[in-house]
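Recap for those who missed Tuesday's class. We walked through two folding examples back to back. For each one, the amino acid string is listed first and its predicted structure tokens come directly after. Nothing is annotated here on purpose, so try labeling regions yourself before you check the end of the notes.
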Amino acid sequence: MLKPELLAPAKNLERLKVAIAYGADAVYLGGQNYGLRARADNFTDSELAQGVAFAHQHDAKIYVTLNAFLHDADFEGLIDYCQFLESLGVDGVIVSDLGVIRVVQRNSNLPIHLSTQASCLNSYSALLWKKMGVKRLIVGRELSIAEAGLIGEQSGIDVEMFAHGAMCMAYSGHCTISNFTAGRDSNRGGCIQSCRLPYHLQSHDDKADDLVSFMSSRDLWGIYQIGEFFNHNICSLKIEGRMKSSFYVALTCKVYRQLIDAYAVGTLDEQLLSQAAAELQSIPNRDYFSGSLETPADKNSVFGQLSGINTGTHCYLGMVMDTTSQEIILRLIEPLAVGDKIEIIPFHGEPIGWQVNQIFSMTGERLESMRKDSIVRLPKPDDSVRSHNITKLNVVRFTHSPGRSILAKNLVRRV
């Protein structure tokens, strides 16, 4: 039985490290050019070198996106870039464009993964891509797990599927709304997610003017299909979200790591699934559904909440920057005050909770509260907390409180 790889997104070097710390087997990311997330931080050449080194030190892989659809002028520098990626030991590149595939093959030995943007939806197409040297198919999101598994079986090529995250209602992501509304080419890295906005629809008699949201899909989750991914030999389960926070990356990686590992040893049960669902509900989402993993998406897949996304049951508070036996040093994403209850999310095991009784500045000044975007020292309140192995990159969260922001940010959360 093939155990699927857990593949996570990384907007920057911090999120790469967070993803791997929380259980990702591989990370996909973009450089400064040639990808579909121009608005992400993306990786400089130096950061790519650091990221690949960190991943390989922790037995993880790095896949780099070259998945934009390029015009002739966009190819400048691509040959050198492919050779640079190969010199770093990048484990694969994600490609949509036939011309880019040709350049990669002629100038490097980088393994090619076919992007979902290429809309591979059948075994005939898969066999053709295989003949062209593609090593893995990231199949279109329109496919069910059973269909994807059949493609892999009939073509003899590895198949990767999206298992979690935001869904695009355009066919395999082929959307040009941003081209017309913002002058940014969606298929060359410029998508501004115009589909997420509310729109006015006017009736034929010009009397009604209804505000509706009709182009935004609900978010995908595949927690209840983990066994099916195994049964159909899907080689990699992909989490969407290169624009998302470290908090999102940490929680989704931890949840899917637990589920994949539990199924592999026969211990996945309803209690664990219920816990997984609660954790995923703790982060902002557009309501979850199973997409086309079992049956084709339909009108019930549309996210119709004009008030915005669900903010989740917890809020991202910050990230542990350092720790001693007596205290943690915490980078705040939101304000913190004495009396707040927080939870640290360890890489393994249950959240570690405590009530904040003391806050100190880095110079030792005792504080009653601290603004966001600050670094503070929090003494561990008792032996029950001190006994835990709290490490760098642990995220922290907190519970909702009157007047507090509830938008997810990073790795510490309020409870």
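Example two. Treat it independently of the first, because the proteins are unrelated.
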Amino acid sequence: MSRSPELNAQLREIGLFGGLSDQVLAGLADTLELVELQPGAVAFREGDSGREMFVLLEGEMEVLKRSKREVEARVAVLGPSDWFGEMSILDVMPRSATVRAIAPSRLMRVTAQDLDALYRRDLKSYTLLVLNIAREMSRRLRVADSLLAELVANMLDEYARPRRPAI
């Protein structure tokens, strides 16, 4: 029996799990670990090793990135149905950012081992899940490209603008 029909229904509405059968969703709801974080609690830190990702079921998280000058900047705020940490599963590199709770939050942990078990049990569902991750990463890259283009254009406008002579 599943943990809760509400959790199954919630997973059905999350893009990461798009296209997965009710049976697969019920299995994930039953086996994946739930984590609760209070405001200020860190899911992981930039530079940490990690072989897990998280799905935000309730609450709000912020994504923080350190600059070369060690200035930490908020680059995103995540809400229910968002997920994060998938890069460390796919590329096996250290965490690229810090993610911290800014409201009481409930998360579902998905480890590399969980994905491996899904791969061995149900290749079609595994493929759909990885494709959903790739789609979201592509969307995020498009957003980042647009922001970068705006930043560069604004900088060029500022430095290319003719200066008024001092009086």
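Answers for example two:
Strands lie at 33-37, 42-44, 52-58, 61-66, 72-78, 83-84, 98-101, 105-111.
DSSP finds five helices and eight strands in the chain.
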